[in-house]
Design a protein that fits this description.
mainly alpha, three-stranded mixed β-sheet, 12 helices, 385 residues, 3 strands
């Protein structure tokens, strides 16, 4: 989720990955070519981020409404995008934009996007088989009707867990120990491990009552699927806070690996559980609202930390920049939540609910659009590719 290293700094083909993810590597450890490219990019902010909105907004609108309206877009695109996100992380973080990196700008991002879309469908099919049986109407029809194995909402805890596990392994755990492998195999291994974690978590934790005749399999775990989904989105919010908005600070600073990875995991997981207990317990906030609010913060954090990356840096000290980026993310997230909720309340809802649409629009539609533009497409045609 940052600029690619300069040619002299990048290991290509089957070579090993850099020691740490680029986004959380302190500046002192980057090569001169990377730092020069970063300075050139920062000089173009905030104009570079504003130009990126020309791509991000239309794509987000497509995902929010293009499935046949607001409600059908949630049920159609929500699962497919969530299943796509681990593949997005694999292409952006592990494969360093391969296979698109072999092509010229423009074709590079398009090739990666097509690959990710195909991976999303395949992963959705695998997820559907795990929770029931293969049923194409349940994947591609937003309202498949009785008797079909609909992905929404049954598959969301599984797909969300796979993505959260992928980010936890990739960013919080710095990809260890898989970063020792060649990057292509490392990415595949990370995807497999993340899916393994998701399957175990779903099998052990999720409580789901399958509709009669749907072909889906009931699960009798201790946690309702919607509650687990809300916790997963909160984990994503903490991951985005520290590893996108704050670029790994303060965990990226120690030189010893264990003194970075262990505290980072404790803070992200512990902070998530504390946050959920406080807002869902004494706050009595529903899981759907938690999902929507945390999703808006994630979208805002990606906007500030990725789309407008470094916009505050030339004018503030590092400490002031961190406060500014967090404050901007909180304000933008609150504004986004208020605006989306106000619009959603003008529509009639049965299933999904208005808050579920808010969460989908922020987390899936806007979040994925930003990641595709910045981390996969490398800001084409506005950036330096």
């Amino acid at each position: 989720m940052t600029a690619p290293p300069a040619p002299g700094d990048r290991k290509r083909g089957g070579d090993a990955l850099p020691d740490r993810p680029l986004i959380s590597t302190p500046a002192r450890l980057h090569g001169a070519g990377f730092l020069r490219a970063e300075r050139r990019r920062l000089e173009r902010q905030p104009g570079l981020g504003l130009a990126g909105l020309l791509f991000v907004v239309p794509v987000a609108v497509l995902f929010a409404f293009g499935g046949g309206g607001a409600a059908d877009s949630v049920t159609l695109f929500g699962p497919l995008i969530t299943f796509a996100l681990p593949a997005v992380a694999m292409v952006a973080f592990w494969w360093e934009d391969w296979p698109g990196s072999r092509l010229r700008p423009g074709w590079s991002g398009l090739t990666d996007t097509v690959f990710i879309a195909a991976a999303a469908v395949l992963l959705a099919m695998a997820g559907q088989v795990f929770i029931g049986h293969l049923d194409f109407d349940g994947i591609f029809d937003p309202t498949p009707g009785p008797g079909h194995a609909a992905l929404y909402p049954a598959s969301l805890p599984l797909a969300g867990a796979a993505f959260v596990a992928m980010l936890q392994l990739t960013l919080v755990c710095e990809g260890r120990p898989l970063r020792r492998l060649p990057r292509i195999w490392a990415g595949i291994a990370a995807l497999v491990v993340s899916w393994g974690v998701a399957i175990i978590l779903y099998a052990v934790a999720v409580d789901f009552r399958a509709p009669p005749g749907s072909g889906l399999t009931s699960a009798s775990g201790p946690v309702p699927g919607e509650e687990l989904g809300a916790v997963l989105v909160l984990i994503g919010a903490w991951q985005v806070w520290f590893f996108v908005v704050w670029r790994g600070w303060p965990f990226a600073e120690p030189r010893r690996r264990w003194s970075r990875i262990v505290p980072a995991n404790i803070v992200v997981i512990g902070g998530t559980l504390l946050t959920y207990v406080l807002i869902h317990g004494p706050g009595d906030v529903s899981p759907a609202t938690v999902n929507a609010g945390a999703g808006c913060f994630v979208a805002a954090g990606l906007t500030v930390g990725m789309l407008f990356e470094g916009a505050f840096r030339p004018h503030l000290s590092p400490g002031q920049e961190r406060l500014a980026t967090l404050g901007a993310s909180l304000v933008l997230g609150a504004a986004l939540y208020a605006a989306l909720t106000a619009y959603a309340d003008t529509l009639d809802w049965t299933r999904p609910t208005s808050q579920e649409w808010v969460g989908h629009t922020a987390l899936n539609a806007l979040g994925l659009s930003i990641i595709l533009h910045v981390a996969v497409g490398r800001r084409w045609p506005f950036g330096e590719n």
